[in-house]
Amino acid sequence: MPELLLELFSEEIPARMQAKAADDLRRMVTDKLVAEGLVYEGAKAFATPRRLALTVHGIPARQPDLKTERRGPKVGAPDAAVQGFLKATGLKSLDEAKIQRDPKGDFYIGLIEKPGRDAIDVLAEILPVIIRTFPWPKSMRWGARSGKPGSLSWVRPLHAITATFGLETEEPDVVKFEVDGIETGQTTYGHRFMAPEAISVRRFEDYEAKLKAAKVILDPQARKDIIFADAKELTFAQGFELVEDQVLLDEVSGLVEWPIVMMGSFEEEYLAIPEEVIRATIRNNQKCFVVRDSKTGKLTNKFVLTANIEATDGGKVIVSGNERVIRPRLSDAKFFYETDLKTKLEDRLPKFEQIVFHEKLGTQAARIKRIERLAAEIAPLVGADVAKATRAAHLAKADLLTEVVGEFPEVQGLMGRYYAKAQGEDDSVAAACEEHYKPQGPADRVPTDPVSVAVALADKIDTLVGFWAIDEKPTGSKDPYALRRAALGVIRLIAENALRLSLMKVAASALAGLSVNPADAQKLPSDLLAFFADRLKVQLREQGARHDLVDAVFALGGQDDLLMIVRRVDALGKFLDSDDGKNLLAGTKRASNILSIEEKKDKRSFDGAPDAALYSLAEEKALAKAIGEVKAEASAAVAKEDFAAAMSAMAKLRPPVDAFFDKVRVNDDDAKVRENRLKLLNEIRSATRAVADFSKIQD
Amino acid sequence: MDASLPAHMRPERSFQGFILALQRFWAEQGCVILQPYDMEMGAGTFHPATTLRALGPKPWNAAYVQPSRRPKDGRYGENPNRMQHYYQFQVIMKPSPPNLQELYLKSLAAIGIDSAVHDIRFVEDDWESPTLGAWGLGWECWCDGMEVSQFTYFQQVAGFECAPVAGELTYGLERLAMYVQGVDRVYDLNFNGREGDAKVTYGDVFLQAEREYSKHNFEVADTAMLFEQFKMAEAACRKYLDAGWKDDKREAHLMALPAYDQCIKASHVFNLLDARGVISVTERQSYILRVRELAKACGEAWIHTEAGGAA
After folding, report:
1. Which among A15, A305, A307 is the nearest to B124, CB-wise?
2. Per the record, GO CC terms (chain B) (predicted)?
C-alpha cells in the first residue's frame, strides 16, 4: 500500500519544541486520516533543527465507497414530493429507486453511493489545514506576506514543503497543495554548511538516506546516541568519565543536524569553584557536558562540546573558540564565588527587609522570622536541637542574595550550604541550608537530619498557611506558588521520617505568626487538613494504592496526625485485601443499606444499645457478644497504634456477621424485636468505626 | 573578504576596518547606511530608524552603528569585556527578506568568519523589550559557543503589530572583533589596524571614558536633576504628541520624531537613575511602564505620519 512522506523545512526550530512538534504532526495527520476512513499501518515522525518530517505507510490508495439509503415519499405521493426526493438523492427518475413495503404503505427508497476519493486528494485537503493550525507554543509571521491578514504563522519562517504519496514500486506523486505561497514539491536541502544543495527525494527510504549523505541525521534518537557514545568514548580514552545529563543531551541533540563531539579544557585554577557551579556555568551558558576524573570522582578541567559541523581544520578553531568563551564565564563564576565568601550569611539578612515576599504576606525578612519561630517549635517534635534549628532557619534563605545564586538560581540552597560551612557553621545547620528545600518533587530525596527536617517543615507549612490565609489556593491546573508540591513535601517528610505531629496545632501556630487575619481563621487549619488529605490521595493513587481508604480514615474525624493516617490506611488496605476483610466490608455495607432503608421508612435512627433480653436466636447473641469483644479489642489495639492488630480483631466479626445475615430476619413481625435487631446492625457499623468509616470505602 | 584591502583595513586587524566591512556588506544588500543617532540610548533598537521605521507598511532597509549606553554595566574599565558604552551594529530589513539568514552568514564571511571552520548556530532566543512594548522571535547566533549576534523577526513594536514583519540583526561589535582579532581584553583591540607607534587601541580611545563614566554613573550623577529630567522628558513627549496632530480629526501627525526623542531621553535618564540605585524594585516596574506608555503613544503618532502610514 502507498506511503506518505511529509517534510516541513524551516529556519531553526527551538530545541525544546522539536519532540512535541514531531509528535503533534504524527498525531494530527494520522487522526485525520482515520477520520477520513483511511486506516494506515504505521507512522513515524522526526525533527531536526531545520525540519519536521513524517512518514505514514500502509495508507489505502482510496477511501472506501460509502453507501447510504434514503427513504422517500409514499408511492403515489404528489409530484412536488417526488421531485424533492429525486433532487436530494440525485436519482434521474423513480425507476432508479427501490420500493419498500412497511406497515404504513409502500415507500420509495433511494440508494446514494458516495464513491471514496483518492487518498492523495484527501491528503491534499487535510495537510494544509494541519499546517495552518499547527499548535506551536509560540509562532510568528515573516516576510512580505506578513503585511496581509491571514498570513501563515509558523515557529520560524517556513521555506519548503515536501509531500509525496505513492507505492514503493512506483514513482510517487507529489501531494499538491500550497500554503501561504509555498507549493509542495519533492525538494529538500542538506546540512546548512556542509551540503546546502537541493536534494530531490521520492519517499521516506531514499529521503532519510539522502539526508544522511547530505550530513543530516534525521532521527533525534540517533543523534542522541551518537553524541552520548562519542562523548563517552572520547572521555574514556583519556581516563575520564562523562557526567551524564539527559536533559542537556536532549537539548544538544536538538541544536545539531550532524553532531561532532569534541573535548576542550580550561585552567585548573577554576576547579576551586564548587563543582555544581562549574557544571551550571558550562551547561547553562555553553550547553557543554562536564567531565569527571574516573579515579578521584572529582570534576576535571575538561568539557565536552557538540558542534554541528566537520570543520575543515579538524575542529581546532571550534575547540579553542569554545575554550575562549568558557574561560571568562568560569572567571566570572570564580569571582562571584570568592566575592560571596567575603560576606557572612547573616550580614546579608538586613537586605531582606527591602524584598517583598508577597504583597499580602510581607517581606522576606518577616517570612524568615516566622520560619525561625516555627522551626524552633517543631524542633523538639522531630528530635532536633532547638538552637541549631533556629540558626539554620535564620541562615537558610541568605544565599538567595549571593552573586552565584543570582547568576544560577538552580544552585540555591546548595550554595547556602557551601557558604555556611565556609563560615564554620555546624554541619547540620549547613546541611539544612540546602535540604530545607527538599523534597522538591515525588522523586526527590527526603532529608533525614532532624535539623533539616524541622526547617523544611517550617518553611513549607509557613508557605501553605500563608497562602491559605490570603486565599491564594491552587485551582485546577493553576498552582503558581507550588503549594501542592509543598503539601506533598510535608506528607513525605512526616511519613518517611515516621514523625508524630499534630498538623492542626502546627498550622494554628503558623497562622498566629502571620500579620494577616483571615476572615475564616477558625476554619483554616481544617481546610488545610482537607488539602493534605487530597494530596495524600493523589500520592497513593500514583503509587497504585487505594486512595479511597484515605476518605474512610479521614471521615472518622479528628485525624490530623499524618503518620497515623498513613499507617491506618496501610493496615486497612492490607485487611481489605484478605477474604475476611472483603466479607466484613460486604456485611457492614449490607447492614448499612438495610439500616438506611429502614431509617427512611421509620423516619428515625436506631442508635443506642440493643436490649439483650430481646435476643431470641443464637446468631443474634453470638453477634452481640462478638461486637462487644471486637470493640474492646480493636480500641485497645488502636490505642496502642497497632493497626494491624486492630484489623485482625475486626476479622473476628466476619463469621458472626455472616451467620447473622444467613439465619436472622431483621424485619421481624414483632416491632420490638425488629427495632432491637436494627440496633444490633447499627452496632456493627459503629464497631467498624474503630478503624475506619467503612461506608466511605468503594467496592 | 575583499583581498585587495590594505592590511590595516582588514577586519581581523582593525576595529574600524571591521565596522567598514560590515557597512560595505550591508550597503551592497541595498541598505541605507545611517550614522549613529545623536542621543544616548541603551540599544540600537531605540534608534528611530528601527523602532519607528519597523511600523507601517512601507519597505525600509537600513544599517548603522549605534553606541549603546548601559550605565549599570560600567566596571571602571576593570572588566575585560563589560562596559557602560559599547557599539552595536544594527541592520533592519522590512519586510524581512526570505534569505535573511543567508545574508547574515555572508556578512560573517565578510568580516572573516569562515563557516567551514567555525561552528555557527542559531539558538532560540525570544526578544522582548518591555520599555518599547516590543517583542519578536528569533535566535542568538553562536560562533563556536559564543553569542555574536541577535537575530529577531519583529512581531510587535510600540504595542502595534508589525505588518509586514521586519527582520533585525544586532551585532555586538567589540565582542565579535575581539574574537576575530584573537584578543581577550576589549581594551587590547587594535582600533586602527596600524602597528608600532601608529597603533591605536580600543583602550587608547575608550578606557579613560569608561573610568570617568563609571564614576559618574554610579557615584556622582545628579539624581535630583535626573528625576526632574525624567518628568520633563515625559511631559515634553506628551506635549509634542498632542501638538503634533494636524487637525482635530487626528488622522495625520506631524511631530512623531521630536516626541520620540523625548521618549529616548526618558529611557536613558531612567537607566542612569537605576544605576545610581535610587529606584526601588516596585518603582522600577512603574518607570518601565511609563516609558512604554510614551513609546506606544509615539508609535501611534508615527503610523499617522507620511513615513509610517499607509501608502
Report:
1. A15
2. cytosol
